[in-house]
Amino acid sequence: MAIDGLFLYNIQQKLNAYTPCKIGKIQNISDEEILIHLHTRNEGNQKLVINVHSNTNRVYIANFIPGIQPEPSNFVMVLRKLCSQAIVESFEQVGYDRILCLHLSCRNEFQDLVKYNLYIELMGKYANMILVKNGIIQDALKRIPVYENAKRFIHPGAKYIAPAQPEKKNPFEIQNVDLDQSLVKQIYGFSPLLSNEFIYRIQSCENYNEILNELVSSNTLYIYQKDFHCIELKHLNEIPKIYTIMEGLNHLYEEDEQKKRIKEQYGDIIRTVDKEKTKQIKKLPKLEQALEDGKDYKKYQEYGDLIFAYMYQINKEKTIVLPSFETNEDVKIPIDMRFDLKTNANKYYQKYHKMKRSLVILEEQIEQCKEDIEYYTQLEEQLQHCTVFDAGEIREELIKQRVLMPKKENKRKKKSNKPNVLHLVLEDCEIYVGKNNIQNNYVTHQVSRKNDLWFHVKDYHGSHVLLKSDHFTEFQIRLCAQLAAYYSKGKDSSSVPVDYCLISQIKKVPGSKIGFVTMKSNKTIYIDPDESKLLEIIKQYQVK
Asked: Who has greater pLDDT, 258 or 347?
């Protein structure tokens, strides 16, 4: 479900409340997602997010930004050059369509006043951002050549032509509504979903203008299983999640977009973890086979002993057969014809000592290989539900392990010393949740005190959860256990076992990778993770 024309009309009204405002920084959140910092007179600094992904396109004011791409795109560089410090005079919807125009005015290098229009087209797979001056395209986020779309050539230097619209009625000038056909065909700004809702309500004796007024004045976003709108969708007969419009648009595709951003910005991490894990999985059976083959190393000592014992009684041949000292059974011994019998015996002794030593090394390598598989499996799971910030910390961890090469860092970018842990402050306690190895290590070994309570899901890779409280209550323990279960592979299971103990019972595993610990003693609680309840608590008590 995409934003329709009437929904965009509602958003446009809310955005115009901030005008006139000044453009500050312009940044990339992802390849098709741009952040514009607005300096307003009465509402302080606001973050305008413009998203033109084919499936998640929308425009909204964000209260929290998940992360910024370190390298700006070409389009962002153009915007910075031409529109930095520009004044946003107004937001205008183009003909009740899914097109929003930012009217900009700024000074060029000669201090002449220049006008630009930034068109935001929220049209599914055709979603785009286009900067226009005097009707001529200066640049576009998605340049469209003639061979892709003959009707609309979107390229610097081309004339800007708005998408064609069929002739319809103005939604605010409607006298009569034909309920026998979809309102999409009759009135501007309607989607099939909104048409169904209006027809359903009108048939239930509600007035068209009252429904329309409810829609355009709404400050509530109703999110259903598959659909959403700024008006309650009664015809769906579902219970929606309710947010303010801007908050709801911010949360709407949060999880899906998080994964997209991580793939775009940290795809090398995902590929590296997968590659290293696959390499270790392939390596393990070879090491185990080598260990198995080496276990009969004692036979080479026997070969040497037999050759020395019968050296003067036998002739040198390619294979000699001698009776075993222990069983008296025949033992076939291959002989290297290039050397005499004494040298063959010594070579078998050398082979015996070499293989004996190699068994110890092979056992160590097998153990290390199993630890590496477990480690990369853990990173794989962490990458599945991490934020962009968390993925950045996983990159740092892999660089320290010398698995990844460090990237050239932006000197201007300030680096935070503290990992991005989830920190909840309730009335009677504090809770810290680590979502990767760096965060887990920070929570367990730096934030903690000996009387704090530590939680970790049993038999799964997962988060380290730390509870700080003067008096541990059942509610606190169950909440921390839920958090430990939720941020693990067992999040979708029931009766998930979670171990917990005092920090004083936690011990680092000598020689292990960062974040690995053992417990001297512990208790176990069985918990059913409740996602909706947890997300509500996180939203309410999270320290940002």
From this structure: 347
Q: Any idea which residue has 């991580």 for tokens?
A: 262
What percent of the residues of the chain are helix, what percent strand, and what percent coil, each to the nearest 5?
Answer: 40, 25, 35
Say how far apart CA 240 and CA 228 lie, in whole Å. 9
> What is the residue-wise DSSP string for 132-153?
EETTEEEEESS-B-TTT-SS--
The residues, any chain, with a CB within 8 Å of residue 239's CB and separated by 6 or more, are: none
- Count the Cβ atoms, other than its own, within 10 Å of residue 136: 12
∠ CA 88-90-94, nearest 5°, is: 125
User: How does DSSP classify residue 447?
Assistant: I
Q: Measure the CA–CA gap between 70 and 265, rounded to whole angstroms.
A: 9
- Amino acid at the residue 229: H
CA dist., res. 418 & res. 379, Å (int): 20
Q: How far apart are CA 170 and CA 273, in angstroms?
A: 55
CA separation for the pair 472, 494 (Å, rounded) = 24
> Both tokens of residue 295?
């276990």
- pLDDT tens digits, 91-109: 999 989 999 999 999 988 8
**230-245 confidence digits (pLDDT tens):** 999 999 999 998 999 9
Q: How far is CA 95 from CA 99, 216, 510, in A?
A: 8, 15, 68
What the block records as the tokens of 173 is: 């000038």
The sheet carrying 228-229 orders its strands as: 228-229, 220-223, 241-244
What is the pTM assigned to this prediction?
0.67
Decide: 143 and 120 in contact? Cβ < 8 Å.
no
Radius of gyration of the chain (CA): 34
DSSP sequence for 473-523? -HHHHHHHHHHHHHTBGGGGSSSEEEEEEEGGGEEE-TTPPTT-EEESS-E
Domains of the chain: residue spans and CATH: 5-140 (2.30.310.10), 171-251 (no CATH), 264-384 (no CATH), 422-541 (no CATH)
pLDDT of residue 418: 79
* Residue 226: DSSP 8-state: S
Phi, psi for residue 124 in degrees, rounded to 5: 60, -130
Q: What are phi and psi of 132, to 5 degrees?
A: -125, 140
Burial grade of 303 (CB within 10 A; 0-12, 13-18, 19 or more): buried
Residue count (the chain): 544
Contacts of 409 (CB under 8 A, 6+ apart): 415
Closest CA to 56 of 131, 1, 18, 132: 1
Task: Give the whole-angstrom CA distance, residue 254 versus residue 389.
Answer: 14
